[in-house]
Specification:
alpha/beta, 5-stranded mixed β-sheet, 4-stranded mixed β-sheet, 26 helices, about 15% strand, binds flavin mononucleotide, binds iron/sulfur cluster, binds FE2/S2 (inorganic) cluster
């Protein structure tokens, strides 16, 4: 490119082009931002302030924010339009209704008639309230779930939703978790203090973690101890990023633990920060967990007011409704205030992560177990396990069982054992027919394959994986092909669009799967291309459910073509 053109572009960055700044909008933005820093990485946080206050983001607000943050309006638009939770209103267009009711229509909620609920709510409110079908909101054990404003309604029906709307119950309550004082009273933060004063040496902590065999619980299962060593060996300053995006349909374990015992996670985080040597921590929490955001902010304030050890810089960041931001490099982009598009690797985030610094990225639950592991020892963890596997797993179980919920069970347990021993069996009138062993992306298996140990690596040979251990169970009243289509629509909706095999592939797959007769050769070819050529795990795994229907539920396809 001509160097003069580059210079001119650089000079123009941060200048307003095309549209002048509306004085009223600017004043409103100034009031919302107050003395908050205008740093680029806070763009998403600032967009949230506008969305929260006005229920949408107007073109005038966007231009005013761009001016205030010294960004080009297109940069602000590009970011704002990427995230599902920002409602952009172009000039001359109508703002959405003042209240939105989101209704989850992902797999488990579909099993529980979410579509009928959406239809009934649409009929009742006729556009006066916005009824929005949305992907999994992380409460699958309470399916079907609606969210009035930010207030989640478990086991939702038209009466419960109407009541919440009529009573203006639109804000999520903070959960009644173990508070800082109570956590400290029962020995909390002692371990972090022991590391800080040298009475427990860091190498012992690292070795215990390695001996326990703890693997990352966000889905990829990378050994936690090894990750700490790799990042610790990188040049300082180092950063930690905590992944609480929890967007995989069927997964709600992070929510479960944060609603109960957030300080156990904070302590694990502070232990990791000391052992690995990280100066700053970014906690990325999905926007759907509004109640947890309140309790977490309160408890973090207490931690800052009364720090048990010297604290690194800690920031709580808010997602904005984009599943792909759970992918580690996309999350880093989002923390930097950009669109959540996965990065090409290498370099890996352990080397070049947040703000270009070596980054230890962990799922919340991985850190949650650190205190117990060190206190109880590696043997405690490895003494659990079944069918030749070791450790414990938090299974998020939902679907056609009597007792859905988080079940802490031995790694390697089979789904049949899980249903019988932890879930009080199948619902009356339902026979076990099939299951998703790892959320929407981990594939689908039939009941006849219900004796496979559930753990990392054990499902690979069947074209499946356990991921975040989200087990969705369905019955002879359901069809695997319908649920696979639900999963594929989710991936189509959530594809970030950066690479063609995923962007075009998911949309093509939805079309093919919506037909009565499945074009099996074409689907197999498409699936292969998506797996082989997509940049990130979303596109690489998106065809798993479709492929599994082709492999394991051929009778459903034969019936349709008869
Ligand atoms: C599309 C996609 C979505 C993901 N979503 C999440 C998520 O919501 N939470 C999470 O912890 N990890 C998620 N991951 C895995 C992360 O990329 C990463 O492996 C993990 O946060 C690392 O932490 P861990 O080693 O403690 O598991 C996702 C991966 C992909 C490809
Ligand atoms: S695979 Fe999909 S989500 Fe991932 S980078 Fe490509 S388009 Fe984006
Ligand atoms: S909350 Fe509906 S599927 Fe998870």
């Amino acid at each position: 490119m001509d160097i003069a053109v580059t210079r001119k572009r650089n000079k123009m960055r941060g200048q307003q082009r095309g549209r002048s700044v509306d004085a009223v909008a600017l004043q409103q933005v100034l009031e919302l931002l107050g003395d908050k820093p205008r740093r680029r990485d806070l763009l998403i946080e600032h967009l949230h302030l506008i969305q929260d206050k006005y229920g949408h983001i107007s073109a005038e607000h966007m231009t005013a924010l761009a001016s205030e943050m010294k960004l080009a309006p297109t940069e602000v638009y590009e970011v704002a339009s990427f995230y599902h939770h920002f409602d952009l209103v172009k000039e001359g267009h109508h703002a959405p209704p003042e209240l939105t009711v989101r209704v989850c229509d992902s797999v488990t909620c579909q099993l529980n008639n979410a579509h009928e609920l959406i239809k009934a709510l649409d009929g009742k409110y006729e556009g006066k309230i916005r009824i929005q079908p949305v992907p999994c909101v992380g409460r699958c054990e309470q399916a079907p779930v609606a969210v009035v404003g930010t207030n989640p309604i478990p086991f939702a029906n038209i009466d419960k939703v109407s009541q919440a709307v009529a009573n203006d119950q639109r804000h999520a309550d903070a959960p009644d978790c173990i508070k800082y004082e109570d956590y400290v009273k029962t020995g909390g933060y002692q371990l972090a203090k022991n590391i800080a004063d040298g009475s427990l040496d860091k190498e012992t902590v690292l070795t215990t973690l390695e001996d326990s065999g703890l693997r990352g619980l966000g889905g990829a299962g990378f050994p936690a101890g090894r990750k700490w060593r790799i990042v610790g060996d990188q040049p300082a300053p180092r950063i930690m990023a905590v992944n609480i995006d929890e967007g995989e349909p069927g997964t709600f374990k992070d929510r479960y633990y944060l609603e109960r015992d957030p300080h156990r996670f904070f302590e694990g985080m502070l232990i990791a920060a000391q052992v690995v040597g990280t100066d700053a921590i970014y906690i990325y929490l999905r926007d759907e967990y509004a109640g947890i955001r309140k309790s977490m902010a309160e408890e973090l304030d207490k931690l800052h007011a009364n720090p048990p050890v010297e604290l690194p810089h800690i920031e709580l960041r808010r997602g904005a409704g984009a599943y792909v931001c759970g992918e580690e490099s996309a999350m880093i982009e989002s923390i930097e205030g950009k669109r959540g598009m996965p990065r090409l690797r290498p370099p890996f985030v352990a080397q070049v992560g947040v703000f270009g610094r070596p980054t230890l990225e962990h799922n919340m639950e991985t850190l949650y177990w650190v205190r117990d592991l060190i206190e109880k020892g590696a043997d405690w963890f490895t003494s659990h396990g079944r069918n030749g596997r070791k450790g414990l797993r938090s299974f998020s179980v939902s679907g056609r069982v009597n007792k859905p919920g988080i079940h802490l069970a031995p790694a390697g347990i089979t789904v049949k054992e899980l249903i019988a021993e932890y879930c009080d069996g199948m619902l009356d009138g339902h026979n076990f027919y099939g299951y998703f062993p790892g959320g929407a992306s981990g594939g689908i298996l039939p009941a006849s394959m219900g004796d496979i140990p559930l753990d990392f690596d054990t499902l690979n040979e069947y074209g499946c994986f356990i991921g975040s251990a989200a087990i969705m169970i369905f019955s002879d009243q359901d069809k695997a092909r319908d649920l696979a289509l639900n999963a594929m629509k989710f991936f189509e909706h959530e594809s970030c669009g950066k690479c063609t095999p995923c962007r075009v592939g998911t949309s093509k797959a939805v079309k093919l799967m919506s037909k009565q007769d499945w074009d099996q050769p074409l689907m197999k070819e498409l699936s292969q291309t998506m797996c082989d050529a997509s940049i990130c795990g979303l596109g690489q795994a998106a065809s798993n459910p479709m492929q599994c229907v082709l492999n394991y539920f051929p009778e459903e396809l034969a019936q349709e073509t008869e």
